[in-house]
Amino acid sequence: MSHDSFLALDRYFNAFNRSAIPWNSPDHLILVHPVLEYIRERCQFLVVPGKNLSLDEGMKPYKGCLSIKVYNPKKPKKYGMKLFFITQSNTGYIVDFSVYSGVFSTLCDTVFGLVNHFRNQGYHLFMDNYYNSVSLGPETV
């Protein structure tokens, strides 16, 4: 695809009204929120989660210019977008996800935002050592 064709598609394909965006909005994902919410709703509608859930992070490889791109030298794909997933532990189907945008999000806020739908309903949540902290310890799903 040529550069001009891409710019034409970018001009006419919008998931958000660009004129309604605040000038100094700190939300880097404001243009794609409707698409992300649709995907999240479909994931939650199509998958009935089992009793065992898994919380993990992943990278979507990307080397272009993007304000939410992160660098992790320990991963095989070092540059990309960071995503947090709640999946069924036996099948790996995504039940819920969150895109790391680096603004106003701590690890605790991200984890509690993802597991909020499953609190006090008898689910078992499995996590790796990355999520092992004192602030996450007392809270259970």
As residue ranges, the low-confidence spans are none
Instruction: List the secondary-structure elements in sequence, H or E.
Output: HHEEEEHE
Mean pLDDT: 81
Query: Which class of secondary structure composition applies to the elements?
Result: alpha+beta
Radius of gyration from CA coordinates: 17 Å
- Report the span from N to C terminus: 47 Å
Count of separate DSSP helical elements? 3
Report the sheet-strand fraction.
15-25%
What is the total domain count?
1
What sort of overall outline do the alpha carbons produce when their principal axes are compared? Answer: globular
Q: Give a short account of the largest sheet.
A: 5 strands, mixed
Share of helix, binned: 10-25%
Total beta-strand segments:
5
Tell me briefly what this model is:
The chain is α+β, with helices and mostly antiparallel strands. Helix content is 23%, strand content 23%.
Could you give the topology of this structure?
Elements: H1 3-12, H2 33-46, E1 52-61, E2 70-71, E3 79-88, E4 94-99, H3 107-115, E5 124-127
Parallel strand pairs: 1-5
Antiparallel strand pairs: 1-3, 2-3, 3-4
Q: Care to describe what's here?
A:
Strands 1, 2, 3, 4 and 5 form a five-stranded mixed beta sheet that branches. It is built from three helices and five strands. The chain has one domain. It is 23% helix and 23% strand. The chain has helices spanning 3-12, 33-46, 107-115, and strands at 52-61, 70-71, 79-88, 94-99, 124-127. It is of the alpha+beta class and 141 residues long. Strand 2 and strand 3 form a beta hairpin.
